[in-house]
Amino acid sequence: MTDTPQRIAVVGGGTMGRGIAQTALTAGREVVLCDVSEAVLDKAREAIDGGLRRLVDKGRLEADAAEAALARLSVTTRMADLADATVIV
User: Which one is the CATH code of 7-88: 3.40.1160.10, 3.40.50.720, 3.40.50.970, 2.40.40.10?
Assistant: First the structure.
């Protein structure tokens, strides 16, 4: 096992949670984002996608890396889905 978290859970899909999730995704980590509202999770996924696209537009991230980052994101409304996370924020 490495010292670096491999699966990060973020509780809350608001502005801060989305930012934490996006940062972890761009660092190559698998992220599960949890919120009580499907609508909030949908908005969070859209915001993270938009943030990754902006990084691509600015030349700070390759398009294939952004696509891979978004593929590592999963969302849930069930806290039980966070049980195997290495770190929970």
Answer: 3.40.50.720
